[in-house]
Design brief:
With 126 residues, the protein is mainly beta. Helix content is 0%, strand content 56%.
């Protein structure tokens, strides 16, 4: 498993601290979609855990299928979500916590801007 880092890390014994990751979130390179995602820290010390930021700006929706389990905390803004398997919709405002089980096919939309912090059970090198 490869460890990956976005931002800078410092350590105090076994404690790891990452700073600055939300300032350099890379584009998802989806045509017409203003979506950005970056692992702030993935697979530390061989762990299957990853965490990072997902940013969406107004524009075309992002359709995404999860290949791993993920939880997301909405930091700011609002995501409009559609479960593409059922057609059910919900709105997630700042402070909401979301869970996406492996296999979820979701459409993300926002009227303006939304930023989420995620953590997942994913081997970055898989």
């Amino acid at each position: 498993m490869e460890q990956q880092l976005l931002g800078s890390m410092t350590r105090a014994g076994a404690i790891h601290k990452v700073e600055g990751a939300q300032q350099i979130i890379p584009s998802m390179n989806e045509p017409g979609v203003n979506a950005f995602i970056g692992d702030a820290y993935a697979n530390p010390e061989g762990s299957r855990m990853c965490s990072g930021f997902f940013e969406l700006k107004a524009g075309e929706p992002l359709v995404y299928e999860y290949t791993y389990d993920e939880m997301k905390f909405v930091v700011t803004g609002q995501f409009r979500l559609t479960d593409l398997s059922t057609g059910e919709r919900l709105v997630a405002d700042a402070g909401s916590i979301l869970f996406f089980p492996k296999g979820t096919n979701v459409k993300f939309e926002t009227d303006d801007y939304a930023l989420g912090f995620f953590t997942g059970d994913r081997d970055f090198s898989a």
